[in-house]
Every structure is written in C-alpha cells, then in structure tokens.
Amino acid sequence: MSVELDVFVGNTTIMDEEVYQLWLDGYTVNDAVKVRMEGGVMDECEASKDVLLSDTMDQYRTFQMCERLLHSPAKLANQLLFQIPPHRQIMLIERYYAFDDTFVREVLGKKLSKGTKKDLDDISAKTGVTLKSCRRQFDNFKRVFKVVEELKGPLVENIRQHFLLSDKLARDYAAIVFFANNRFETGKRKLQYLSFQDFAFCAGQLISNWTVGAVGESSIDPSYNMVEDMDVDLDKEFLQELKELKILITDKDLLDQHKSLVCTALRGKTKVFPEMETSFKNLSRGLINIAAKLTNTKDVRDFFIDLVEKFIEPCRSDRWTAADMKLYLTHYTNSAHILDTFKHQVVWDRYMGVVKSCIFKMYHD
Amino acid sequence: MPGKLKAKIVAGRHLPVMDRASDLTDAFVEVKFGNTTFKTDVCPKSLNPQWNSEWFKFEVDDEDLQDEPLQITVLDHDTYSANDAIGKVYIDIDPLLYSEAASVISGWFPIYDTIHGIRGEINVIVKVELFNDLNRFRQSSCGVKFFCTTCIPQCYRATLVHGFVEELVVNEDPEYQWIDRIRTPRASNEARQRLISLMSGELQRKIGLKVLEMGGNAVVGYLQCFDLEGESGLVVRAIGTACTLDKLSSGSAPNTNTHMHPNTAPASNACNSPSKDGKEPVFVEDLPSSSGPPTPFRALPTSSSSPPPFSPSKPCSRQSSSSDTDLSLTPKTGMGSGGSAGKEAGPLRTLLRQQTQTALEQREFPFFTLTSFPPGFLLHVGGVVSARSVKLLDRIHNPDEPETRDAWWEEIRQEIKSHARALGCHAVVGYSESTSICEEVCILSASGTAAILNPRYMREGCLDIGCTDHRFEDPSPPSCGFCHIPYDELNMPFPAQLTYCYHCRRQKVPDVLFTTIDLPSEAAVAGKGCLIQARLCRLKKKAQGETNATAISNLLPFMEYELHTQLMNKLKLRSMNALFGLHIQISVGENMLLGLASATGVYLTALPAPGGIQIAGKTPGDLSNEHISSIQKRINDTIAVNKELYQINPPELAEEGVGSPIPEPRHRSRLFRSHSESSDELSELDLSHGKKDAFVLEIDDTDAVEDIHSLLIDAPPPTGFYSCNTENMPGISNWTSGVQMFTSVRVLRLSNANLTNQGLNKIFTDLCENLLKSFYFKLRSMIPCCLCHLNFTVAVPEEELIQVTVTAVAMTYDKEQTQEKTAEKPVNKGSLEAEEQLQFPLELCADSSSSNIQTASKISGVAESTNISPRAASVDYGSFADRCSTWLELLRLKAHTIRRGSVKTSRRTQSLAHSVSSLERCSPLQEGRSRSLRSSRSFGGSSVTVVKMTPLSFLPGIRIIKYLGIINMFFIRETTSLREEGGVSGFLHSFIAEVFAMVRAHVAALGGNAVVSYSMKECVFMENPNKNQAQCLINVSGDAVICISETDQESSASTANTGQTGGGGTDGAT
C-alpha cells in the first residue's frame, strides 16, 4: 500500500515561510521533514510524520512551479496561475533573491560563467551551503547581471524595478554585479578577513563616485548621460585624471609640504603619532600609486588587495586604532587642499572620498 | 437570425517561445463560432503581441448562441510548415444572453493546451447583441437564469417554486470513435472538450425551455453531470429546480429577506404560477389554520389511516426497479402500483395533507434540488429516501439515443417518489442523482429527503396572502416543526421510537433524524455540529456482464446497511441525534466496491437526547468481561469528551416533564437481535426502547471488536477546528473574513493482492482520516476555523487504486461571539416550552405504546427498511457471514433500496434559536487570511483581479450584489512526459492550479470577483507510468458573482444586516 498521488491546491496558494526557507536552503524533502519535526511543528494540530511529509511535498511542488515565475518577478504580479496576495509575493521574491554572505563572498568578483558554476560543489563543501542553494544563488547573480547589463540607467534602480527587490537587496546585487563586471580580486588570503558587507559598502562607494553615472559629475559630456553600463564601468576619464595625482609623490617639495601639514595637525592627538610620521611617505606613495595605476584593468582588479597591502597592513602593524586611521586620513585628505601648487582638487576629492570610506570600512580584524 | 456576436482580440502576453532559433513567436489568432472562422494578422517576433484586431462579427441564431462556445485558437505562424497551435480558449457566452447579467466579457484568459497546460494569456473582448425573438416556436431559452446554488440566491426572492426539471443528452464519445486511432491526442482531447461544451450548452437550453414552459424564469440548484460510459457513449445530464425569481432592488434589502417570505411576495406574481399546479387552489389557505388548536392537530398523525398502506404489490415494484440488474433491460412496468398506493391513501388523509398531496401529485416528480429553504417552506421532514440501480451499459439497444437512460432515471425517480410517499411525504427535497461506472456496469443512485412542504408555495395565488404567518407558527414552531413526523405513528413505515417533541411538546418526533438537506436556519440546536463519515470497502470477484452486475447488486444492500450502522454508531458516539447533508456515495471498481457516507451531525434540541452505546458479548462470558468493560469505558469516555468538544449541554430543564409522557424505559442489560428474528421478537425489542436505553453493540467475534475499534479511531479535529459538510455550520455563525477554498486529491495503491474486507476498510478509513489531518495541519494558521462543505468523492480508477477527491472551504470565525450566543439563548425558551409540554402527557402515553405494537405487526411489509432504520435498537455485530445469510432471505423479498426515516424523541427544550445565525449567508469573499489581498496589483499596467471561490452559497462579511451566470467548464489534460512534469502529483497539482486559474479568469472577464457554490463535479485521473503518460479530466461549476464588502455596502445603503463584518474590508468590487 502506498500513496500514489497526493496533492492539495488552494485557491489562494498556501505557502509556509518556514518550508520555503528550507526549500531555498536546498534541503531535500526528507531532510526538511526532519528539520520541521525537530522544530516542533508536530505538536501543532496533532500532526504525524506522514502529514508533515505530505505537506512538505505539496509545498515543494508549489515552489518548484513558482520558481519559473520568480525568475522574472514582474510576472508573478500578473500571472494567473497562482493567486498569491501581494505581500506574500514580495516575501517570495525577497527570499528567493536573498543569498548567504558566506557563499557570495566566495564568488564575489569572479566571472559569472559556466566555469565558476562548475566549481560550485567545492564552494558548497567549503561554506556548508547546499549545492542546490549555491546554484540558485549563483543563477540569481547571473540572471540579474544579464538583465542589467542590457539596461540603461542607474544600476540599483534598475535592479529594484526589474526584480522588485527591496532597496537593501538591490544594493547588494548592484555590488555583486559591479564586482563581477570589474572582476575585483577578493579571494586572496589577505582579503579573507573582509566580509561581503565590507565589499558591498565599498562597491556602493565606487558606484556612486567613480562610475560614469556617478552623481554630481559635471565634467562628463552630456551625451554620456544615458550610456549603457554607466553604473557598471568605472569612469575612464576619471581614471586617466588620477594619473595627475602622482605629483603628490613625485614632487619632493609637495610631498614634504604635505607631510608637514599633516603632522602639524596630528601632533599630540594620537599615541601612534611617531609611527604616522615615519610611515607618511610610504603610505602616501602607496595610495597615490594605486590611483595612478587604475587605468590598467589588471590593477583595477587588484584595487582592494593593494589597499590592504599598501595601506591597511602597514598601519595595522603599527597598531593604529580605527580612530587613528580616521584622523589620519581626514587630515591627509584635507591637507592636500592647502597645497597651493596642487591643482587637482576635484579629482583628489573624488578619489580620496572613496578610498577613505573604503579603508574605514576595511580597517578591522 | 436573432443575434450578433462580436469578438475582438486585443493582445497576448507571456506566450511560449515557439521558434527556437529566435527565441520568439510569430503569433496570430483564429476566432471561431459555429462554422465561421476569422483570423487576425500575424504579430511577428513577439512574446507579448498586440493584435488590436477589428471586431469579428458572427450573425447567429440564439439557439446556437446557447449551445456553442466561442473558440479562440492562438497559433504560431510558420512559413514553410504547418502552423503550430499554441493553445485555445473556449468562452461560454451564455452569461451575455440574459439581460441582468454581464454585458461584456473582457479580460485576460489563459491560453490552454491539453498537452502543455497554460501557455500565456490572451486579452479578448466579447459582446452580444440580441434581437427580439419573433419565433413563437423557438428552440432557444435565452433569458432563463441558472444557478448552481442550492438555496434561493441572495438578492433574489422566489415568488414561485415550480419544481423539478431534468434533461439528458447523449453523444458518441470522440475518444471511442474510429478516427481516434489516427488523430493526435491533442485533437482527440479538443474534440472531447468541444463536444462536452456543446452538449452542456444544448442541455442548458433544453432545460431552459422546460422552465419557460412551466412559467418560470430560473433554475436553482442546477446540477449537471457527465457519465463517461465509454463505448456506449457520453451522457450529459442535469437536474434542477425551476423557480420564478424576482430581483430584489439592489442594496436595499437585507439578506434575510432573500429567503422569500410568503407574506411579502407581491400579488402581481400570481399569474406566473406554473400551469400544472394551478388547479386546486381552493382551501389550502384555510387548512393550516384549522390545525392550529392542539386537538385537531394531533389528530393528524394519529388518525389510523394515513400512511400509504404497504400493499403487497409495493415491495415488489420497488424491487424490480432498483435491485435487479438482471432485469434491468426490461423497462419497469410496475410503476402504477407505486402511484396507486399513494392515491388510495389520499382520501383518508386530512384535508390539508390531501390538498398538498394532490397538488404535488400532479407533478411527475415533486422533487427539489434545493437544500435550504425560505423559513416556513418545509413543514415536516420524514427522512432520507434513496434508490440505486445497477445497469449494464453494453445492453443499451440504441446507445446514441437518450431513451434508455431516460427510462432508467425515470424508474429510479419513481422509486424515490414511492419511498417518500411511504414516509407520508409528498415531496422530496435536497434531491440529487449520481452514477458510478466501471467498464460496462453502471450504478445509478438518487437520494433526497422526504418532506412535507408548505402548500402555499406550491400553488397559484397562495403567496399573495400576507396575513397567514401566525397560522403556521402555531402547529409547528419553526425551531422544531420540521422534526415532527410526517407519517402516521400507528402505521410507521419502519419501527421508530417516537416521543413528544422536546420543544413544543405537541407533536411526535423521532429519536434520530437523517436528512440530505442543510440544517434549517431556524432549527434549534445545542452545541456545534461535526462531520461524520462512514467508510466501507467490500471486495468482490472480478466478473463480466450480468454476473458482475448481480454480484454488485447483491452487495449493495449490505453496504448500505453497514454504512448506516456506522453512521448511527458514530452519531451516538458524538452524543448527537440528527444528520444533515447526508450523502452516500457508492463507487464501483473491478474488484471492489467503496462506500462513503458523509453528513453533518448535530444535536437537535427538539429530539430526545441519544442514549449511550452499550457493549455486550454475545453470550455472557464469551469474551472476558474485562475486555468488554475496557471497551465500554473507552466508549463512555469518548462520548464524554465529545460532549465537551462539541459543547453539547442542553439544559435539563424538561427532564421531569418528560418523565411522565414516556413509558418507563425498561432497562435491560443487553439487547439481542438478529435479522432473522421473528416479528414478535422485534416487537419486544421496540418496546424495550425507552428513551434512556443505550444503543447496544454486540461483540461476538474479532470482527466485531475491530469494528468497534474502528469506531473509536476517528480522531476529533484538533482544538480550534470544526468541520461539516453542509452550507451552515451548526453552532457557528460569526464568520470572520478568512476564506480558503481548496481541492485535494489522494490516490492510494493497494500493493497487497490478498486483502481482506477488514484490512481494506482500515486502509480506506485511514486514507480519509489522514486527509482530514492533513487539512487541519495545512490550515492551522487559520485557527479558529471551520472546514465547511467538506465534499469527499471516492473512485476506483483502476484495480488496486483508490482515489479520494475533496473540495472544501476553510473559514475563520470569531471564537468569543459564539460562546456568548450559546450561553444566552437556551434559558428563556426552555422554560417556555416546558410549560406547554405538560398539556398532553396522557395522550402521549397511549400513543407511544400503541405505535410500537403497530409497527411490530407490520414488520413483514417493511422489513427491508427496518433493517437499516436508524433507530434499530441494537445492531448485531455478528460475523459478516451470519449477516449475509439472514439478510439474503429478506432481500429476496425486498428491494435493495433503502429508505431511512428517522424518528424519535427526547427531552430538551431550549432552542438556541440560531435563526440569527442564518445570516451567515450574507457574505462573501475573503480568501486566505490576509485582508490585504487587494483586488489587484498592478505591474506594467496590467492587473489581476482577486477572485474568491467557495463551495458555499455565500462568503462571510461580503454581500453578493449580482449573479453573472453559471460557470461550467470541462478540461482535459494529458501528458506524455509524466516524469518530467514531476510525476503524477506534479502533473495533477499543476492541472488543478490551472483549472482554478481558468475559472478565475473567466469570472474576472465577466466582471465578477467571486465564485460561489463552486464544485468539482468530476476528476477522472488515469495514468500509465510505464509509458510515462497520464490523462486527467476535470469538470467544475459554480456561480460567478459580483460582491461587495458588507461594510462598504452598509455605508451606501441602509441595510439592517447584522453581518459579522469581521473586518471584511477586502475585495475590491468591480
């Protein structure tokens, strides 16, 4: 005796959020039943294991049927097959596009290609996220990437409108797309301590300040206004201009002047002042060199590793506190304005504004 | 040429990719009606084509308009090869044919393909212009409204109820035509879908004609069914109740008035009365008043004359019609005997009865498919009448003609009619018909509730007299009148224990009442109701033709008997005394028969309290006493728990008063009875049945123990849940807005080849119980909630497969309010009734004893019904074999059909006059818990209307303002890639979801936002896993309506609707 067929269909589609999460997390039906049993659902309504199994299967089937719609969430709202209340639709979409930080950390900056997809089982083993869930998340990244790639206009807004995601999630996806597009290196050992949220923050900074579509950018040709990928690619012109900053380290006078201005401002305000004074030139060279090299795609990829190697690590070995770091970078940036021979204030602010906030974010254990 | 149909194809969306190379589709549309076809332009390379076509115009007869669906086919244009079909949409334009309903059909329809399911959507606008029909011999019946709802629809008032209409059409099943061997499955499925659509249209038109002929303008309780007979054809048949309905001016009338009140009916309607009934208007009006004073009234049932005598000829005629398959080919000749029996009885009855009787007798079938009635319509209810007949389909002489089937149903209906008459009733209410087909064997079943109706509703002019209200209220107070026995207690059609009504103390009531109707809204109940099911499997040998048919018809009575016993036991176990909405389904398979009886149990305060259940060994010491006493204890505990659970605690006020009129109950430790017992034994038995006597179960072998265990298996619903299979949940009326309709299908494969009946029963019972458990679990977020209208359908699709299909609706209610209500009502009424009751103690005493004797002596004539009569005092739990032998003898003489009345008596006085509760019927819509479910959500300019569905005739907190017409849709889905679609479950799951989606889309296109009285009539599932194939046929129906939230409406119109608006703020009415 066996149950050959068992279905339950509601006019309003019934979906249990807990089961949905288990499905998204890639649990098999049997594992999901186990988890639910441990969770104590059985006590409600005197359910038995069979009841739970049947319910879980029904829900899994429903989710599978919905999955196609979730791939283009806009369809969910005007499809006729499932009658789902709007707030539920939002929940379904938001959860479907949610991802594990540990997983995304592994693929961040990698090409969203078939090759990467093949490595997903390794990532699954490493992160403990089930392969099924890894695939879903990876496919989501890829799908969002593909769609926004062809769209004009602001990246975050495009993602939000097209996938009906919350602002937060849309921003995270923007970061993922941005990283994937520019292939930033994030996997090196030295970067391991950084979380996805650290990178997402940095990506947000880069997107809103260094790309063509960046706000307040006046130097752009008006015809550029709605170019493709305006949020995804860094502003080439800006990158060129960054080369001009080299003067801050190549001009001996300027470098000394800059150092003395900074040191004057910092003296007595921090315990690590001596170390700051000693390493000023090195640190400054580090930051400016990073800026100057950004015209090379290869060096763009290494942006974060460079920041860590050239700046964060030396500071950390000198035991700067986060407050020290803040103090230093603020004065470092501001002092440059006082240098009368330094003409590239706009580019400098645009560069340092982002670098400063990135380093603040990245300066932790 | 009286009609012009216009259609415009606007756009498509979400189309499938038909051209792999471009990942796009070059779609165009064919619009076909009758033999005329139009085409749109091709919209190249788009998955969201905009056609914006011209108006395609079809000039057609209105006859065709009624029969034909508009057929829209979406195709992919292909330059070099044949165009590929994407899918189709069939639009039934019937709703456009009556003036009040929809004026335009416009909206997005799912494009459906029988192989691929839904493939995108298409936006269509359809209009109809009707010209005046000049032809007086017309064949069309445009304008007759159809309702699936089995009560008078909200926002209408019935000025006249004309009665039964039926029709049946037959055609060759395309699946069995020779051409099917060479055409594709898709073509075959589409031919079938189209044919059934055509046949349904034709059927509806023909029924409409009959209604017009009777002078009516609507069919209520329209029930249409398909019989897939296989080789011999495809039958579409329908029954309904013809009425003349008046639309209440919108908004102004409170819902309660929807149920017509005789005195409010306008005089102008007199002329509408059907020609058939108009003949005897004379004194009907006066008679009821004459029965007002207690004495004449009592004379009614006691007069020695009344029930139709059981002339020897009668049982025979009954037998010939139902039981004997072998004879099924000879048309029944004995019809006259049934009829004459009634006539003989006629003159002997009181005038009142005579009058109504004659009025009704003039109709061929005084049947009503309605299950709930306007207050005052039902005078008395006799009990359930049912008839079954086994037929051989391969013996139909002229399979393409309806005559044979017509004759079959005619026979069954005659039998039902005669059963009703035997119960002293002149009408059958809550009437329904069904079939079960396996290979060439077909079981036809019909059942209903014998009743006496208020004659005023039956004849011309009666409705106009406004002053009569109090005349009726006197003899039968609304809260208990329907329980009073309609038959003569001296000549009871079956042995029953009668007592004086615990409510009014004036008339006799049975101890138990079984009916197929809904609980009348004015009935007084204690506590809450609950779903009661009896389930049964019987193995049979595989056989062919007549042998098979005989085997089946031999098994039927046993099954009925056992189902009945189970129901009875379970009813007692729940401490209840009445069943409503009883539906017994017997389904036939190659090697087994399945029986499933569902009903809603309730405690009627007018009937006596049920005694307990007492366990007894066959002979003392047979089984260890310990064992028996432990079972007894379990049973007692269960009863106590159930009383608590269903809050059955009627006040004991009347106890003393009751004591005197009823003969001292003889307490016997044990009752013994077998069916072969002689009549004096039986009489002894009946006498022994004092009111306090327990219902006795005997244990004499292991089977009996099993049976008792299985009795106790039924788990009560978890806290916060109630369940019923009727429209109204007894004891709950304060619905809140949560509504969730669902369909669930489960198929079980029996792997074990040598199963016993017992084992099979267990499996079947578990299957049903587990389904219920699943529902409770899934719907737990709706607690406190009630599963209403639980409709179970069983089938044996193949050998070793059992299929159970359930459709129901879960509705949330407000716990607090319920309790208040129950608490306050009983008291005052109780004391009032107690006084009245004291007036007739003596009479009662005499009557009840004499009636018992009467019954006993009559036993030979009615043995067949005795055996299964609900009040059978003790049920023999002897082995099956024993029962068989004793039974067979009786059966040879008696019919297989079973008639049940229910009768009896008890104390109990208070009425929880839940008449207020009847307001439940007010309101509609609300799906799921979320009130945020707004009617539409827009994206990219499109929106989807939220369409609520319910099998009930109402939605809580919401008021129906317009009926748009019936939805009657038939779909076939087939797959040749079963595994890829997620196996059988995946396949059926998506199909059911698709069916829902198509129903919703059609309703939305009519401008509606809800479907009431929704039901899934048919769900035939066939699979062939080895070939990776499966096929499923689904037929659904319901009434499309527009409804608005009660709260909204109150602001606009001054409705005194109490409505438990419970936050109905939902649903955007269109």
Roughly what fraction of the amino acids of chain B lie in strands? Answer: 25-35%
User: Care to count the β-strands of chain B?
Assistant: 34
**Succession of helices and strands of chain A:** EHHHHHHHHHHHHHHHHHHHH
Main beta sheet strand tally, sense and closure of chain B: 4 strands, antiparallel
CATH topology heading of the largest domain in chain A? Globin-like
Output the radius of gyration of chain B.
Answer: 29 Å
Shape type of chain B: globular
Helix content of chain B: 25-40%
Just give the CATH class of the largest domain in chain A. Answer: Mainly Alpha
How many β-strand runs of chain A? 1
Shape of chain A: elongated
What structural class do you assign from the helix and strand content of chain B?
A: alpha+beta
Give me the CATH architecture of the largest domain in chain A, please. Answer: Orthogonal Bundle
Report the sheet with the most strands of chain A, covering strand number, pairing sense and barrel closure.
none
Question: What is the number of helical segments of chain B per DSSP (H or I, 4+ residues)?
Answer: 21
Number of helices of chain A: 20
How far do the termini of chain A sit from each other? 60 Å
Indicate the radius of gyration of chain A in whole angstroms.
25 Å
* Percentage of residues in DSSP E strands of chain A: under 5%
State the share of residues found in helices of chain A, binned by percent.
Answer: 55-70%
Output mean pLDDT of chain A: 87
